[in-house]
Structure formats: structure tokens, C-alpha cells
Amino acid sequence: xxxxxxxxxxxDVERECRNRMKNIETLGALRQAGYRSRSVKDExxxxxxxxxxxxxxxxxxxxxxxKTVVPQLVNALLARHDIILLGLRGQAKTRILxxxxxxxxxxxxxxxxxxxxxxxxxxxxxxxxxxxxKEGDKAAVTWLPRELRFGEKLATPDVTIAxxxxxxxxxxxxxxxxxxxxxxxxxxGIIPRTNRGIFAINELPDLQPRIQVGLLNILEENDIQIxxxxxxxxxxxxxxFSANPEDYTNxxxxxxxxxxxxxxxxxxxxxxSLEAALAITAQEAWVDRGSHVEVPALIRExxxxxxxxxxxxxxxxxxxxxxxxxxxxxxxxxVSNAERRALQSGERxxxxxxxxxxxxxxxxxxxxxxxxxxxxxxxxxxAMGLVGKAVQRVFNRRCPNPKKSSRESREDSVFAxxxxxxxxxxxxxxxxxxxxxxxxxxxxxxxxxxxxADKFFEPAGPAEQAVAMEVILEGLHQYNLLAREATxxxxxxxxxxxxxxxxxxxx
Length: 507
Hints:
With 507 residues, the chain is α/β, with parallel strands linked by helices. The protein has two domains: 5-267, P-loop containing nucleotide triphosphate hydrolases (Rossmann fold, 3-Layer(aba) Sandwich), CATH 3.40.50; 274-506, no CATH class. The protein is built from 23 helices and 14 strands. It has a five-stranded parallel β-sheet with strand order 4-7-10-1-11, covered by helices on one side. A three-stranded antiparallel β-sheet has the order 12-14-13. Strands 2-3 form a two-stranded antiparallel ribbon. Helix 13 packs across helix 14 (297-310), helix 18 (379-398) crosses helix 22 (462-478) and helix 20 packs across helix 22 (462-478). The mean pLDDT is 87.
């Protein structure tokens, strides 16, 4: 990380000045101190520029967007744009919008008892203007922290204009004998009450078109109108939105005038590299259970590959997307299965296995949408197929293709000893209930399997070696060189030819 001492010192001076001002309690004292208010977008722009100049991280914890989303987002903020993040589910859209708060000032002065976070020098509400008119420089000032300057609303079809913008309060008008056009009878919605802050609407297309129309003035003229009365309230805020492309056809649309008024549309995406995906899952998944479950790196890679396979599967609806929550929840289930086994067997340091990934299927089947062909296959069958493809992907990254040449005989293959073990009529049962010793002893009994694991995977320890041996067996099955039956979280590997003959005889 680079730092520029001169610029950092200037930022420290500005911060110190603002901290001294926190003790100011009246408008007159604020004016005497030389405080100058600025718009929210100018405030964000200035603080963002300072971070860029100091070389500080902009969105810590957001991984995989360093060359794509983050530069576009920074450009939009520097241009003082209202923003929409467009992408499939599980792409950190909401998290990014909430992180924009960090670019606001730590605190800002507002008029005490004014309803809209009113700027003491330029109050937006009628109440605020009346306070300044009556009390002048003695008007009370309080300080609003940036955490309270963020408003958020999940768009649903039942959201009304009154919820977002406000409405006339007839009871107040009758009680105080005021006309409906008097600003004092307005009941403000959530957007005006976020004045001088950031307001986010998630899943924007779910808003009914007539409600979206109510946002047009806020984005273009920076004001609101209520019930057709000549009440204009100038608002100062950054408007940000999120949307899923699927929503445009399945649930609703963003009306064209509203899309035209949102200055920047930024497309989010899933991790494009395995390394970024692994980092995201490692950051978000809860695997530290206090029971010392060992999670080999190969298991993490398999779980991540599961999501990549789902995003390419012909059985999965790609327009719906495969959320980053899939590998996160799957890894947590894998760890839970190893933890459960350890508690039942009394082992102190269990290690996750490939067969444990089967326990992650509930985290997969509930998070992927299937196309018609996938529904015909069934979610469990599709999920099991994805597990096999994920292991094969890990196998292909390190091992040679077992069928790379038709001229090569099975005897000359590097996998010859392993295949010969099963050709002799023997089988191997791998269960998630076996102890660690039983599991490893079974794998080491297969001729040549540990040698191949050490050669191609270079395991860091016994647990990693065991997973490597499992990956080799499953990889050979995916290439139709070994048969595998999966029942009750038990993988049974046998000779492919013998299994085919037995099946034919049974038929």
C-alpha cells in the first residue's frame, strides 16, 4: 500500500478541525468557526479523492472486482452520479451499496428538532426554516454520525408513494387547523428523512411503475412533490439502486424515464478465477468451530469447483444465476459433517473428505434453479452430478487425461496399478462414518494409489493425501474407467467392465 505523507497530513488537519467543531452547539458558533456545508455528492467525491491519493483500500472485503466493478464505481462517484448495480444474486451488490457510507464525513451538523437532517445554513423543511427564523444564531445544532445517514428499502410490490416520499396527514391538519397545502401537515417518507445522506433501493424492478414515476423528480430536480400540492422540498442525497437482470422479464421492469435518470449502470459478476472464489468463500464461510476440523485445500477447491460447474451446467437455469452463497453454505455443511463424525467417534482432529461433500447437497439443491431437463432428472441427481464434475475439474488440473491416447494400452497407463486392483474383482467402500485411520487404511490398500497422490498432488499431510487419493478414484470414475455407486453417503468403487456385465445379467 502506498502512502503520500503530505496529503495524509492535510487529511489529518481537516479531520482535527472537524473534530473540534463537534463541540459546537449553536448556529452562530458554527458560522463563527467557519464551517462550510457541501452537498452529499461533493462530500463523497472529496473523501474518495483523499483515499485514492493516500493509496488506502476502497472496498475492503470485496474480492474479484479490483479490475472491473470497483474502477467503474469510483468513476461514477467522482462524477457525482446516481448509480445502479445490475447483476445476478449473490454478487455483493447490497454489501457494496452499504459500504458507500464510509465515504461520508464522520459527522455533520444538523438543526436540532428539524425533521429532515436540515443543513443549519440552508434548511430544507418548513420546520427548519421556522427554527432559524425564530432563533437566529441561537438555533440549536447537533451532530449526525455517518452511520445514521444511510437509508435502505427493499422494493416489493406493496410499497407505496407514502412509504417512500410521504403523504398529507389529515389528522394533523384538522387538529392544528392547517390547510392541506401547508408543509407542516406532511408526514415524510423514508427518502426525505434520509436527506443529506445515501438512500438505496434494492431490487428496483419490483417497484410498481407508478411508484417508480415518483422517483423521477428526486433524481432530476432533487426535490419531492406530494399529492399534487405546490410543496417542493429540495433534497440533497445520493440515490443508489440494485437490480437483477432476471427481474426485467419475470417480475417487473425499470421504466425507461427512470433508467435514463440513473447516471451510471454498473454490471457485477461472479468470480472469474478460482483463486478469487476461494478467497471469498474463505472470508465468508464459518469453518472455525473450535473442534479443530481440518479442511484440506483440495476440499475447498472441490467445493468452489461445484459452483463453477453449476454456472456451466445445462440443467441449471443460468438466467437465475448460482449465488456465491452456494460454496459458502456447502463448505459449512462439509465441515459440519466432519464435526458430527468426530463427535460420534470420539476423534479429536477430524478431516473433511470427498465423501463429506455429499452432505453439502442440501446447501446446493435449495440454491439453484433447474431448467425443465433438470427438473426431470431431479435436484438430487443433478447435484450429485455436479459434485462428480467438480472433482473431475480438480483432477484435470493436476493429473494426465486417462484417455488421452487410444494407442496407449491400460497396462502402460500411469493408472495401471490402480485399475488392475479393481480388475481383479476387488472393490472399495468409502463411508463418511469411517474413522480417520479406517478411511486412510482403505485408500492405501489400493495398489499404487498413494504413489499417484504423492506424484501429482504433492500433499502437505495425511489428510491432504487421503483427499488426493479420493480425487484420483473419482476422476477415473468420471472418465468411465471405474464404476461407482453412491448410497447412504457411501462411495463404492468397482471395476467398470464387471459392473456392466453384472447389470446386463440382471436385466
